[in-house]
Description:
By secondary structure, the protein is of the alpha+beta class. It has helices spanning 23-34, 38-49, 97-109, 137-153, 155-162, 177-204, 207-222, 229-243, 249-266, 269-274, 291-299, 302-310, 314-331, 336-349, 354-370, 381-386, and strands at residues 63-69, 72-78, 82-91, 116-120, 123-131, 165-166, 172-173, 278-279, 287-288, 332-333. The chain folds into 3 domains: 9-35 and 171-269, no CATH class; 59-166, Yope Regulator, Chain: A (2-Layer Sandwich), CATH 3.30.1460; 286-387. It contains 16 helices and 10 strands. Helix 1 packs antiparallel against helix 2 (38-49), helix 6 (177-204) packs antiparallel against helix 7 (207-222) and helix 7 (207-222) runs parallel beside helix 13. The longest helix has 28 residues, at 177-204.
Amino acid sequence: MQFSTLPVYQAPVEIGKDPIVSIAHWDDAYKSFEAKEYKKSLIAVLNYINPDLLKKVDTSGDVEINQSHGSAEVKVSITDTKFKISAPFLKIEKANKVALMRRVNEINFTPLNLAQIALKENVLWFDFECELALCQPNKIYEVVREVCVYADDYDDEFIEKYKAEFYHQVQTIPLSRANEEKVWKHFQDIAEQHSQYLEYFEQKRWRGSVWDILVISILNVANMPCINGSLRTELAEELYHLYNSNIDGDYRIDRAKNYLKNLFTKYSREKFIANAYGVEKFISLKFRSSSKILQNEFEQSKERIAQEINDGSHFAAAYSIYLLLLRILYEYNLDEGHKLAITQALEQAGGKESNEALVILQDIYVKFLEGTIDANKPKGFFGKLFG
């Protein structure tokens, strides 16, 4: 293997789809809120979050929604005066309650900002309610995301560490046998490539490149749509630490190295597949994207990448753009045109010498900076063949 080439990118198996947001609903939510039509504004926010939520719901009177999000069961209630969202979290009758409630208090302080975890008859609930007049669209979007994401994220930690129990049986969508084979093979390919690049970069003592391959490997696993359960939570935690510049750089690298060594050497097929499945979603875990949002995201790295190119550091510049594209796939719920443009660029650049790869990656980078990529119209057959 030539390590002057970029790592090969393999598009993951697509399992289900995130709820697709529509900016038109967001505009309606703001206009209705400013007109003091608070219930109408809330309904628009929910349609923005997930258009399927209200398809079979009569919104002329009080509104009730029960919808799964991963392992959580999310309940929303809208009356003429109040909005309420709750999610029964875990049963703690047999749990280590002292340590568990200490952890609950920590979570209620941070990262929770609006919702809180409350104890009701040996069941932990995520809860939030407020008057309709206080239901500003951004606030409601954030509290819905907060309840859904953290109710789904923390259950595995509480079960493993404190012996809590699921409130209800988790509804999962198992992979077909063929897809099991594909995702396991993909995982093994990522592991093999990671091991080879890591060994080479460490021999060269290229600390920055070691960080690069750690992030690339974690993102390649995390970007597989079927990854759920405790594995998804672990990967998110490792990414948080790797990108946290307030933490010592050597500590971040050593932590991620140890984590990936354990992941790639000790995760059996059975354990991996136990964390690979589809789930129903109330809200996308990823942030909404648009041409303007992505343009701003690319703008943030413009000076650094330009400096790398001007200094003749084509290897560094190619890795910078490659990493940025992988992170965009991880963080944003992309329109089809944007997603296709990114995955094609990664596939074309992967495995190529850094100078050649940079030409491909710089082209897509500039197009995103200029906002010239069509978000809504994926390329047709010949476009896919000839780029």
